[in-house]
Design goal:
This protein is mainly α. The chain has a two-stranded antiparallel ribbon with strand order 1-2.
Length: about 150
């Protein structure tokens, strides 16, 4: 690792550690067909369903990326699409029972990783980091110029 690594690199490496822990837990629970691009669907799909265009906005990914994730998860039985009662042309994405079973495992594993990181540093340091990242995200989100061609896939 470079002596003074870019913040983006550090964020990516720490995120990969967190993601690998969740992926390992999901695999052990029989959900080994879930891939990282699918995570946004599970994270942002409310019980009342959501259109792909809204999922795209919430996850800050390209519509093509989200559409592909939803299609893959539908084939795997984690989501289903139904007509939107408020938009005759629209369809809503819903988690199936199998899809709903993913969240508790991912959430519990995420909490375990958070707890382990707090052991390695301190609960106060982790809370400061969480607060700082939240504040930074809110500022860059509000400050971000509109990009042509959609948002990033990250």
């Amino acid at each position: 690792m470079p002596e003074n690594p870019p913040l983006g690199l550090l964020l990516r490496l720490v995120h990969q550690h967190w993601t690998q822990a969740v992926d390992t837990a999901l695999d052990a629970a029989g959900f080994g067909d879930i891939r990282p691009p699918h995570a946004n669907v599970f994270t942002f799909t409310p019980p009342e369903g959501i259109q792909v265009s809204e999922l795209t906005k919430l996850a800050h990914v390209r519509k093509q990326t989200m559409t592909q994730a939803v299609e893959e998860l539908e084939k795997l039985g984690y989501v289903e699409r139904r007509p939107d009662p408020n938009d005759r042309r629209g369809r809503l994405v819903f988690l199936t029972e199998r899809g709903k079973a993913v969240r508790p495992i991912a959430s519990a594993t995420g909490r375990k990783v958070d707890d382990r990181w707090a052991e390695l540093t301190s609960p106060e340091e982790m809370e400061r980091l969480r607060r700082s990242l939240r504040q930074l995200f809110e500022k860059v989100r509000d400050d971000a110029p509109a990009r042509s061609g959609g948002e990033s896939d990250g």
